[in-house]
Amino acid sequence: MGERAKWSSRFTFILAAIGSAVGLGNAWRFPGLAAKHGGGTFLFVYLLAMLVMGIPLLMMEIALARNFRKGAIESMRGIKKGLEPVGWAATSNAFVIVCYYAVVFAWVILMFVFSWKFAGMTGDSAKASGLFFELTKTTGAIKGTSIPGVVFVCLLAAWALIFYCIRNGANSVGKVVKYTVFAPVILLLIMAIKGCTMPGAGEGLAMLFVPKLSALNDPTLWVDAIGQVFYSLSIMMAIMFAYGSYLGDDANIAIDAVIIAFSDMAVSVLSAIVMFSTMGGTGMLGNITASGIGTAFIVYPQAIVNLTSIGWFNAVFGAIFYLMLITLAIDSAFSIVEGVSAALADKFHLKPKTVTISICAIAGIISVLFVTEAGLAWLDIVDNWANNYNLIIIGVLECIAVGWCFSLRKVLSEINLNTKKFRMPYFWFVSSVKFIAPLLLSALFVWNIYSLFHDNAGSYGGYPIWAQIVAGWVVTVLVFASGFIAKIFVNRMKKNGYTEDEVVWSDKN
User: Fold this and answer.
1) How far is the C-alpha of 390 from the C-alpha of 367, rounded, in Å?
2) Which of 225, 240, 255, 406 could form a disulfide with 61 if both were Cys (CB 3.0 to 4.6 A apart)?
3) What is the pTM of this model?
């Protein structure tokens, strides 16, 4: 196996973690939720949720991985052998997510390539909103199996880019993030400047930043804000375990985690400025939706063709928008693969590059399902269960594992190992990991289950029940059974000479 790879510098780790955290959800889901919940009111609750839950959990995962020098599976086993299935669940669910996230990445590439078509759609909102459906041939239902050739080519391009970025683990990731993290910020700034100079932009910005205090009484505001923080920071997905395991003992986890979290929020707010100013400038503020795919591929194209009366300018602006989404998507996509790869390579003593190739190949084959005519519907189902149920349960289990089955003082000591100016307070960290985070996540899970069965009679999206069972409930069962299934194979491997590593916490004080 050789010596474990390490980040070339602290700055590289911070960039990689920011790149992972800042993804497509920052660009489209965050602005949509802000529009739904009174702008400034949502920003306030989001900030509160990040402080009391997001930052402590981010620190927790990085600290555990840095000390154990292992990915998610082995780090959980290091806490207690019986908790290894929690690491397997996080890793398996991440694998499920990357199978369809790569397809969304491919769709973004597709829209970038065909953004020139916006030049001939000036003022034609209906035609612009239909471009995505025209290119992907999606039915939006569990119907159709053909695959458009151009979409398949974009999917191959997406997987090729993902593999290229992580072909050598931390070394290649470190080289890539120096460009991919700053690129979307620059592109967002260009779009923000354009948006803020449009007539009507002021109305959009007022909608974003002026709070509506009455919205605080809406329980869905708190549910959505907590959920967005949880999904946005790339925690509970095996990613931060992988990235943390490449850290040296001189890293300042307390400060770095705060930088990562606030950078993630800053990009979200910048994305919201772009969205609200552009929509305000085109008179389409009422069209902003919390649906990411709807915003990026249906609503925003309408704004693009109504920016000016100059077709080529609109097309260029559209190309910049989708290029920005490409740079956001690629970091998140390859970080998920790296999280899965590191966890499996550590567990089975395999070469990381070999594991990465295998993951990309297997996930790539599975992802073909999501570029069929019925692909969008399948993606919607899998995404709903992977994020709204699986990820939240994994979060609760991780909090219980670390907060109730391990020493939080040891974890906190690792977090504060090299910090002097800012130290994570004991009461803040312990109250969050042991009580606040698991309670909030449990409430979020209960709310989602209540909404599914009470408000929607146990059905999601109007899709056939059999499809929801196959792509939803069965996938969920497999995710949480993966650790127990793996245990059967590990026991068989032991009979042939395989030996599990001894994973022991290292006290450094």
Assistant:
1) 19
2) 240
3) 0.95
